[in-house]
Amino acid sequence: MSTFQIEGGHQLKGEITPQGAKNEALQILCAVLLTPEKVTISNIPDIRDVNKLIEILRNLGVKIQKLGKGKYTFKSDELNLEYLESEQFKQEGSGLRGSIMIVGPLLGRFGKGYIPRPGGDKIGRRRLDTHFEGFINLGAEFRYNKEERFYGVEAPEGLTGTYMLLDEASVTGTANIVMAAALAKGKTTIYNAACEPYLQQLCKMINSMGGKIQGVGSNLLTIEGVESLGGCEHRVLPDMIEIGSWIGLAAMTKSEITIKDVSWDNLGIIPNTFRKLGITLERVGDDIYIPAHTDGYQIESYIDGSFMTIADAPWPGFTPDLLSIVLVVATQARGEVMVHQKMFESRLFFVDKLIDMGAKIILCDPHRATIIGHDFKSTLKATTMVSPDIRAGISLLIAALSAKGTSTIHNIEQIDRGYENIDDRLRAIGAKIIRMDS
Questions:
Q1: Would you call 304 a catalytic residue per the annotation?
Q2: pLDDT one-digit tens code per residue, 44-87
Q3: Which of 46, 49, 121, 167 is catalytic?
Q4: Residue 384, Cβ density class (10 Å: 0-12 exposed, 13-18 middle, ≥19 buried)
Q5: In a 3-state reduction of DSSP, which class is residue 150?
Q6: Is the dihedral angle over the CA atoms 119, 125, 126, 129 positive or is it negative?
Q7: Do 74 and 42 contact (CB within 8 A), yes or no?
Q8: At 279, is the secondary structure helix, strand, or coil?
């Protein structure tokens, strides 16, 4: 395991450009399987999870060519579907949760798709029922090998469009069903569909390939199946989770930072949620400018005087991936806030590390934590910790950069799964961070 050594307490200054969005890239890369024609994708982030998926596609027989930083072409004209039932795939696919989204396009195009039970962050139960119930509604037969923990869906006669009401607005579930339905016979209507910007991007990409999807951006999607899809060019959005991370970093370290090319129109309520914590951020063109918060920042109260609660919700609500950032930023605010993580029951368990550093946090239950801010009257203390997942990892890194002394974070492979060359990029704006490879 590799380690970060971070000397905290330094103000940072400069510009930072967000990487391409991890969660979009995982969907878009799976969509290349929908067509035998060439697909060109740019702004792909160079991170572990995305690179793992690219390797799975390569092993499946996709012809991949790198054109430059973050830009690739993909051609899925001669696929080796036997790879899906190999021991190699069972090992590779189980290590990446995003690999579940290869099932939809393969099912739609070839009438079958298989996947080992996928891995990912240990942040609570993340069931796959929505994916497979959607496939079954489209006419696929489901099978599960319990001993090998291996899932399969088959539709040798092809898929048929239908109406379905999803039991949860699952982003990856919606993406998987949309990709399968794009090549089904007839019309598919999906109600309670996820409508995140990344899902919108997938729908726009499929339409540019010749698909017929209506209702993009809403929770009611209508998909007219087509016989085949063609090639296209697509650019991945900037990563809204990374943008939120840099907002939190700037506030916690009292740094003047400009976040470049953020695609403001796709950030939803993220900027205003950070403003509720008292953080000043300004729109300058398509950039976010954050001044140095030398006098700190004060959490807003509700009109009746009760203290603020920030909770996650399906889009256009606040994304759960940024609640960890909100929590750590609140530790140095003036005031109190409750963070309510509704969607994953294990995502707040990293707060014990922040408490060790001197943060005032009451973990009410697995879903709720109350934070009493220090208002910078007392700095966090450096410590040694382990990154449990991607988002907790970046939160601990932000805490370490604001803390007094030198902190050590182990298991930084978790951070590398979601953040591209993060140590190099932070050093460029003044962070004292060293990567030590074991």
A1: no
A2: 999 999 999 999 999 999 999 999 999 999 999 999 999 988 88
A3: 121
A4: middle
A5: strand
A6: positive
A7: no
A8: coil
